Amino acid sequence: MSNANFKLPRVTNEPNLHYAPGSTERQALKDELARMEAGAPYFVPAFVGGKAVEVEGPVSTQVMPHNKTAALCTFPTSTPELAQQAIDAALAAKPEWEAMPFNDRAAIFLKAADLISGKYRARICAATMLGQGKNVWQAEIDAAAELADFFRFGAQQVQELYSQQPPENAPGVWNRVEYRALEGFVFAVTPFNFTAIGGNLVGAPALVGNVCLWKPSPGAAYASWVVFQILLEAGLPKNVIQFLPCPNGEATIKLTAKVIEHKYFAGLHFTGSTHVFKTLWKDIANNLDNYLSYPRIVGETGGKNWQLVHSSADVRAAAIQAIRGAFEYQGQKCSALARLYVPRSLWEAKDGFKSILVDEIKKITVGPPGEFEHYMGPVISQVSYDKCMSYVEKVKKDGAEVIVGGTGDDKTGFYVHPTVIVTKDPKSVTMVEEIFGPILTTYVYDDDKYEETCALIDSTTTYALTGCVFATERSAVVTANRLLKNASGMFYINDKSTGAVVGQQPFGGARGSGTNDKAGSVSIFYRFVQARSIKETFLPPTEFAYPSNAV
After folding, report:
1. What contacts 24+ positions apart, CB below 8 Å, involve 79-83?
2. Is it true that the peptide bond before 41 is cis, omega within 30 degrees of 0?
3. Which of 177, 243, 252, 298 has the fewest other C-beta atoms within 10 Å?
4. How confident is the model at residue 454 (pLDDT cuts 50, 70, 90)?
5. What is the DSSP letter of 312?
6. Exposure pattern of 392-422 as b/e (b: 16+ CB <10 Å)?
7. 325 with 498: CB under 8 angstroms?
8. Given this model, what pLDDT does residue 1 score?
């Protein structure tokens, strides 16, 4: 232990590289993409008890979404028996890890952030591009910048958490609070769509002294393994995180059941579908009598995110931001725009909203992530591709109009073209159900129905993740803010529905979109600690009676 209160280095958001033609970062990334693709497939093992372990049984493949015949990696099927070994190893590591001084734990994650933003920047971006189908900019803002921000700001935020102490002390008394790790282990179930989220879902609990089991998405197995290797290189003790790759389906159900039935299951940190999250919550409730403590359940799930355009809006700005919100990363961000509400006067005007929207979308090219000129790449899988195309067919049968896109190509990769649907039914299937693809549904409302449209937005879906309003009249912004205060956990004014930055816009939504614990802020860390109040008395009483007892 050190006899000092250490002050962390000043933390700022990681600057983004722009990969302009001729730049050194562009060439480095192109070289890494070529090297990585040529060397594939890689094997991603289970890592339990401080080492890679052999697992008998089926081996699964993470295909490259832009080239469905090529595998980026293969990985084993982690079993319930292996999960038990992982739990035992994690719990054995727990006393030493949670006893490590915070400055030493923080140093690991600060070093990891420097490795991500420096030595391994090209590698982690390339893994995200090839494995998850992101273009260079989407990989940069996710796998490099956001993940580094999670680790750096996380250390700062935990320091802030630990500094929260009682403001008052009675004479002769010293009050204080310590923030202990949870009594048990945390199970992190991470998604395909953000490499940074995968790192943060294990990083946040670990930073405050918890041990974790990590089940990465099969669609991000390789990038997750790269993150794990970086953490180990940064000095993370090998038993703090147990890495358990597993394909979706029955194997994951069995693995998860073994994990969440354990007495020392202390928390779930989840990002994924609403259906899976609700199922896990029910399963945890059914095991409640098994647990030493009530498990902390932290989850961010889906969204049916909206953009409301007022008649006073800057039309071009609203249209451009709708395109970015809906079609960046092929609409596969949790925050991606799915519902667009435009007043009739702006929609039907000559050179108005509709014209700008359609004309600009027609400029979008779709192609492999290694070809930097493409704004969009593939969706993550054949299942995702088929789902997207099935929704297009549904709305056509229901009489909605597809004004741009509506087509796809899965000959070599899973390419869905950016699609805009115009519906006269504000509660049609693509306005209500989450698709998770590049499909935007528009409802044109009468200009004098602005407040009614706010009510419609609020009541159309079970989700409440992100939303945005475009207006130059402040009264319109105030009205939307008032009527839609529960319709999203993220509210953007004259900006798109996506793009939350760690340390600037804490991220999360409520209703069917999750527990709204605000990743990227100090709030998330409260969920993975148990506070203990300590009172120390220096001058104890010498008599039991109080003055009020005197006669």
Report:
1. 79/55, 79/251, 79/254, 79/255, 80/254, 80/255, 80/257, 80/258, 82/46, 82/48, 82/53, 82/55, 82/244, 83/213, 83/244, 83/255, 83/258, 83/259
2. yes
3. 177
4. very high
5. T
6. beebeeeebeeebbbebeeeebbbbbbbbbb
7. yes
8. 59
User: What is the distance between the alpha carbons of residues 237 and 17, in angstroms, rounded to a whole number?
Assistant: 31
Helices (H) and strands (E) in the chain, counts: 18, 23
Residues with active-site annotation:
300, 334
- Listing DSSP states for 409-431 in one string gives E-SSS-EE--EEEEES-TTSHHH
Helix H, strand E, coil C: the string for 174-233 is EEEEEEEECCCEEEEECCCCCHHHHHHHHHHHHHCCCEEEEECCHHHHHHHHHHHHHHHH
- H helices of 264-380, in order, are 274-286, 315-327, 344-348, 353-361
pLDDT tens, 425-448? Answer: 999 999 999 999 999 999 999 999
Looking up tokens 């009020």 gives 548
Per-position b or e across 285-314, b if 16+ CB within 10 A of its CB? eebeeebeeebbbbbbbbbbbbbbbbbebe
User: Quick one: tokens of 526?
Assistant: 């409260």
